[in-house]
From TrEMBL:
This is histidine kinase. It comes from Streptomyces polyrhachis. The keyword Transferase applies. Keywords: ATP-binding, Kinase, Membrane, Nucleotide-binding, Phosphoprotein, Transferase, Transmembrane, Transmembrane helix, Two-component regulatory system. Its EC number is 2.7.13.3. GO terms for molecular function: kinase activity. The chain crosses the membrane at residues 16-40, 46-67, 109-141, 161-189. InterPro entries: HATPase_C_sf, Sensor_HK_TwoCompSys, Sig_transdc_His_kin_sub3_dim/P. It catalyses: ATP + protein L-histidine = ADP + protein N-phospho-L-histidine. The keyword Phosphoprotein applies.
Length: 417
C-alpha cells in the first residue's frame, strides 16, 4: 500500500505535474536546438524522426537553458513553482531574486535539472501510455474479433505467449513510468533546498533584516513607554493632588486640570507620530528618524512635569546634535517619571552639561521611603534609559546613595553619527 501511495499518491501526482511543467519550459529551447542541429547537420529537413537528432537537440538545449537561467528572477519563478508542488517545507526555500553570483549559479543549476528531467518524463508520458494501451487492449480485442493486428505482432511477436504476456508488459510499462516519475520528483525534492534554498549571504541578509525590525520595535516601544508613561505618572499625580484640595484650593485645582489637559494633548500628538511609523512600510522604518521632542522643549517639560525641578545648564544644549538631543530629552523625561513614581512631589535637581565631546545629564532627588506607585507594565524605564545611552555609545548609571536617588547619563556627541 505504501508503494502504491509512493507511485500514484497525491504527492507523486503533484511532482509529476511539476515535471511536466519542466518539459513545457524545455520546448522552446528544444525547438531552437533542433533548428541548429538541422542547420549544422546539413540536412534538408530541420525536424526528423531520428532519435539521434532529437536527443542531440535535447543535449544542446540544456546549456542554452542554463545560460538563460543565470538571471536574478529565475530563482523567484522556480520557487513559486516548486513550493506548492514538490512537498518541500516552505521555510527551506529562499525568498526573492538571487542577487549574488553563487545564488544565481544554484538557480541556474536547478533550472537546468528541472528542464532536463521534465523533458525526459514529458516525452515518456507522451510515448509510453499509448504503447501500454496497445499491449493491454489488442490481445483481448483480437480474440473477440478474430482479426490480426500487425502493430501488435511487430511489438510482441506471434504465438500464444506474447499474447498472454502483452497485458502484463503494458502494466509494467505504466508502473515503470510512474516509478521513473516518482524517482525524478524525489530527486528534485532532495535538490530543492541546496539549489533553491537561502545562501549564506541570504541568511545574513535575513538576519540583518530581523535585527533591524527588532531594533525598530524596541525603539518604538521605548518612545511609547517614555512618552505615555511620563504623561500617566504626571496626570496621576496632578489628579491626586487636585482631589485632595478640591474644596479648599480651587485655584490649584484649576492649574492642575490645565496641566493635565496640556500633558495629555502633547502626549496624544507624540503617540500619533509614533503610531504613524507603524503604519508605514518596513523599508521606511530603517531609514526614517523617530519623531519626538528635543532639548529645546525641555523647559516646557519641566514646567509640566508635576514635580518641582531645579534645573541648571552648562554650555549650549541647543547646539547638541539632533539625535543626541532627542534621546537626552527622553532620558530626562523618564528620570522625572521615575522620581514621580518613587517620591511623589519631592523636589528634583537636574544638571545638563555640554562638554566638548559628550553631553552629561545628572539628576538627583531625596528618597521618600514610601512604596513606589506601581504601574501595570512598568519597571522598564531604567532599562530603556540604559538602552538609549548604549545605542549612542554612552553609559547610564542610577542608584541610591546618602539618602538620595542619583542618576547620571553620558552621551557622546558623536553618537548621532
Amino acid at each position: 500500500m505504501r508503494l502504491v501511495s509512493t507511485l500514484f499518491g497525491p504527492q507523486a501526482r503533484r511532482r509529476w505535474v511539476h515535471l511536466i511543467l519542466g518539459g513545457a519550459l524545455l520546448m522552446p529551447y528544444w525547438l531552437l536546438s533542433s533548428v541548429l542541429v538541422g542547420v549544422l547537420g546539413g540536412g534538408g529537413r530541420l525536424f526528423t524522426g531520428s532519435l539521434a537528432v532529437q536527443f542531440g537537440a535535447y543535449a544542446l538545449a540544456l546549456p542554452i537553458a542554463a545560460a538563460s537561467g543565470y538571471t536574478p528572477l529565475t530563482r523567484s519563478l522556480c520557487v513559486s513553482a516548486a513550493r506548492p508542488l514538490l512537498g518541500v517545507p516552505a521555510e527551506r526555500f529562499a525568498e526573492g531574486p538571487a542577487r549574488t553570483r553563487p545564488a544565481r549559479l544554484r538557480a541556474s543549476a536547478w533550472f537546468t535539472l528541472h528542464l532536463a528531467l521534465g523533458g525526459l518524463i514529458s516525452g515518456a508520458s507522451l510515448a509510453l501510455p499509448p504503447l501500454a494501451a496497445v499491449l493491454i487492449v489488442l490481445p483481448p480485442l483480437s480474440r473477440l474479433t478474430g482479426e490480426r493486428y500487425e502493430t501488435y505482432e511487430v511489438l510482441t511477436g506471434t504465438g500464444p505467449w506474447p499474447a498472454l504476456l502483452g497485458p502484463v508488459a503494458g502494466l509494467a510499462v505504466l508502473v515503470g513510468l510512474a516509478a521513473a516519475s516518482a524517482g525524478a520528483g524525489a530527486l528534485l525534492a532532495r535538490q530543492a533546498p541546496p539549489l533553491l534554498g537561502p545562501t549564506p549571504a541570504d541568511r545574513l541578509a535575513a538576519a540583518e533584516r530581523r535585527a533591524a525590525d527588532l531594533a525598530v520595535r524596541n525603539r518604538l516601544a521605548r518612545e511609547l513607554h517614555d512618552s505615555v508613561g511620563h504623561a500617566l505618572s504626571a496626570v496621576t499625580l496632578q489628579a491626586s493632588a487636585a482631589r485632595r484640595v478640591l474644596d479648599s484650593d480651587p485655584e490649584f485645582v484649576r492649574e492642575a486640570l490645565t496641566a493635565i489637559e496640556e500633558t495629555t494633548r502633547r502626549t496624544v500628538g507624540e503617540l500619533d507620530a509614533v503610531l504613524g511609523l507603524l503604519r508605514q512600510d518596513e523599508d521606511a522604518h530603517g531609514t526614517e528618524e523617530l519623531p519626538g521632542p528635543a532639548l529645546d522643549l525641555l523647559d516646557d517639560l519641566l514646567a509640566r512635569s508635576g514635580v518641582p525641578v531645579a534645573y541648571e545648564a552648562v554650555g549650549d544644549p541647543a547646539g547638541v546634535p539632533a539625535a543626541v538631543s532627542r534621546e537626552a530629552y527622553r532620558i530626562v523625561q523618564e528620570g522625572l517619571s521615575n522620581a514621580l513614581r518613587h517620591n511623589g512631589s519631592s523636589p528634583v535637581s537636574l544638571w545638563i552639561t555640554v562638554h566638548s565631546e559628550e553631553l552629561e545629564i545628572r539628576m538627583e532627588n531625596p528618597l521618600s521611603g514610601r512604596a513606589p506607585v506601581v504601574r501595570p507594565g512598568g519597571g522598564r524605564g531604567l532599562r530603556g534609559i540604559a538602552e538609549r545611552a548604549t545605542l549612542l555609545g554612552g553609559v547610564a548609571e542610577a542608584g541610591a546613595k546618602d539618602g538620595l536617588w542619583r542618576f547620571t547619563a553620558r552621551l557622546p556627541l558623536g553618537g548621532a553619527r
